[in-house]
């Protein structure tokens, strides 16, 4: 009788899944259910967090047809990257609709988002070779991370700051040449003795660019980074990083749709961070210090006066984690930020912020996990805010059910408050608004993950975000502007304003398949689909709310053999069509773009040559109105890798 029941149960599960693949009830492949630190700060299997996460292994980046980290993220399931230019020029990150300001980027726990503007969030000051993994958390996360963590969190985790006690050495280098004066190069070294870890990396992307309107789309993007980590005794570890990132690029159409726009921009970033860890069996104390300085020079055209600014961010994050019993743990934290800007167009301003937060994780029975979190956030300008969150998950052998609800917050940056505020005269353009209120929202989601064998995972989620006082730019008549002293009465202006109500409803599905086959063959695929509907009280007339995709599907595919490898990535999106006939700028209702890379290994696992084609089908497209993206681009090069244990 008992054997019959077991057989009936197994047959039912196989029939329900409608796939002829065996189920693994005893263990889950770490490729499908890896350990994450982003959802709760505490290391935990992603299936126990109650959240939808995507994790990219750093070792996979070199195989893909991408030149920079923002291009890599463009093909992550469910993540929309609104690119203004190629190869790291500038991109905005959007998760589950909303605006680009509502995604938080962090490196080893510290915030990258700049006080000046969220447009700089894609300037990630580490090289691809330094990355251990990238964790993308979708949905509300303000209870742990604070402002900007509205749509999601992108967490860059580096090898040096998370080094283990196993000795290893890795050396990587690549060089690429191609059309339009393209010349890219990268190199990275990582040495881990078990007690000491050191990494050094450099990335340089350079091109004259394809022709735009009266200017070529040139890009010169360079990053150099040094990091070290030292074990101090058996329980302490000290880690440090210093990096410099410089980007000089054509910025036509990045911020305006005027015919006289032949802009160029130069953004230079210094990034420094220090981390002290104390680790023993049941507790972990981490103290993180960070300093970021950004110099930005934007010149609208050769006859204009350049906008120049320096923004600075000091930050402190202290967290304490402790296990409680067999299935429980807590995390507490204190966070402080000091932001400032000195600018000839925005003026001189500073802002202080602080927070304390608490998170608790408790396993209940065999499959339930409860993750509540609470944050008390203080902002010098807007006062204190209580931010709660609750995550639930239930994990069975082959499926997971999860749900999450939480409050999110976001304060305006210095550009939204003070853009063009300090100029003697402004003929037209975007205007900051010092009286902006902070954004508030409640986010809800529910989802299910299905695991088939050790190779396949399907994640599907429905979500809803209800927002008040969302900050966005909207065309505003001169008479309705709150401040007119330095403005041209005949000019055209867009004002940063609070939109009383914006609600987004959506559904997303992510598919992951990874399998190593006999004789050294590999097949790996990540693909995502997301549908969103956003309704706002102003009728979707504000700029960035109306620019996000209504439907987005993106994918990354790898086919490998002992001597060759093929990688493809692509995306298809549907969004609101926009146009400006005066400058022949068009955002089509939909577009599909795909890139490809074919590699041949001259020396297995050590040296390869490759041919790469970006925008294979030569699509004419813009993610944001007037920011023209390149057409077909052919290039080739060589890659080198050496690993020693």
Quick structural summary:
By secondary structure, the chain is mostly beta strands.
Question: What structural class is derived from the secondary structure elements?
Answer: mainly beta
Mean pLDDT metric? 92
User: Into which percentage range does the β-strand content fall?
Assistant: over 45%
What is the oligomer described by this structure? single chain
Shape: globular
List the total number of helices: 4
What helical percentage do the residues reach?
Answer: under 10%
Task: Give the low-confidence spans.
Answer: 1-28
Q: Report the radius of gyration as a whole number of Å.
A: 24 Å
How far is the first residue's CA from the last residue's CA? 53 Å
Strand tally is 34
Largest sheet: number of strands, sense, barrel closure: 22 strands, antiparallel, barrel
């Amino acid at each position: 009788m008992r054997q019959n029941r077991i057989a009936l149960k197994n047959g039912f599960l196989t029939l329900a899944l409608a796939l002829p693949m065996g189920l693994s009830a005893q263990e889950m492949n770490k490729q499908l259910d890896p350990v994450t630190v982003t959802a709760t700060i505490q290391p935990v299997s992603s299936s126990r967090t109650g959240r939808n996460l995507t994790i990219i292994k750093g070792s996979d980046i070199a195989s893909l047809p991408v030149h920079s980290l923002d291009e890599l993220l463009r093909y992550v399931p469910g993540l929309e990257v609104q690119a203004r230019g190629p190869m790291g020029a500038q991109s905005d990150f959007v998760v589950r609709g909303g605006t680009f300001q509502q995604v938080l980027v962090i490196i080893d726990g510290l915030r990258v988002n700049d006080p000046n503007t969220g447009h700089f969030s894609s300037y990630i000051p580490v090289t691809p070779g330094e990355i251990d993994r990238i964790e993308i958390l979708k949905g509300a996360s303000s209870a742990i991370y604070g402002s900007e963590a509205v749509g999601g969190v992108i967490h860059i985790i580096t090898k040096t700051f998370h080094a283990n006690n196993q000795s290893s050495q890795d050396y990587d280098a690549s060089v690429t040449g191609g059309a339009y004066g393209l010349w890219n190069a990268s190199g990275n070294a990582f040495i881990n003795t078990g007690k000491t870890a050191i990494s050094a990396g450099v990335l340089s992307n350079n091109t004259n660019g394809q022709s735009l309107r009266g200017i070529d789309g040139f890009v010169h993007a360079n990053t150099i980074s040094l990091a070290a980590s030292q074990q101090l005794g058996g329980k302490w570890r000290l880690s440090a990083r210093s990096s410099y990132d410089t980007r000089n690029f054509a910025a036509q159409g990045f911020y305006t749709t005027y015919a006289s726009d032949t802009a160029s921009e130069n953004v230079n970033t210094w990034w420094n961070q220090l981390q002290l860890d104390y680790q023993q069996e049941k507790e972990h104390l981490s103290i993180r210090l960070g300093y970021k300085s950004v110099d930005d020079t934007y010149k609208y055209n050769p006859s204009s006066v350049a906008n120049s600014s320096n923004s600075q961010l000091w930050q402190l994050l202290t967290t304490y984690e402790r296990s409680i019993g067999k299935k429980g743990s807590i995390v507490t934290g204190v966070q402080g930020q000091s932001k400032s800007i000195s600018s000839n167009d925005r003026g001189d301003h500073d802002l202080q912020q602080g927070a304390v937060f608490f998170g608790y994780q408790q396993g209940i029975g065999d499959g339930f996990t409860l993750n509540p979190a609470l944050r008390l956030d203080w902002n010098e300008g807007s006062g204190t805010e209580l931010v709660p969150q609750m995550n639930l998950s239930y994990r069975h052998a082959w499926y997971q059910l999860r749900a999450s609800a939480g409050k999110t917050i976001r304060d305006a940056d210095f550009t939204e408050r003070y853009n063009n505020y300090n100029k003697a005269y402004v003929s037209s353009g975007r205007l900051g608004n010092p009286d902006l209120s902070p954004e508030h929202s409640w986010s809800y989601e529910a989802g299910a993950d299905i695991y088939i064998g050790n190779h396949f995972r399907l994640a599907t989620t429905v979500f809803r975000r209800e927002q008040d006082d969302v900050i966005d730019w909207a065309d505003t008549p001169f008479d309705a502007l709150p401040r007119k002293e330095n403005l041209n009465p005949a000019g055209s202006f867009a004002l940063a304003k609070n939109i009383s109500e914006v609600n987004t409803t959506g559904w997303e599905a992510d598919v992951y398949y990874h399998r190593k086959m006999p004789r050294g063959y590999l097949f790996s695929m990540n693909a995502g689909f997301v549908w969103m509907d956003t309704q706002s009280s102003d009728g979707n007339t504000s700029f960035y709310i109306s620019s996000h995709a209504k439907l987005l599907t993106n994918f990354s595919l790898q086919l490998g053999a002992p001597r060759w490898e093929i990688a493809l990535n692509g995306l298809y999106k549907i969004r609101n069509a926009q146009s400006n006939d005066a400058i022949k700028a068009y955002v089509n209702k939909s577009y599909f773009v795909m890139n490809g890379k074919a590699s041949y290994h001259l020396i297995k696992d050590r040296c390869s040559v490759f041919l790469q084609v970006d925008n294979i089908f030569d699509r004419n497209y813009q993610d944001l109105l007037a920011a023209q993206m390149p057409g077909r681009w052919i290039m080739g090069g060589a890659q080198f890798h050496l690993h020693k244990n």
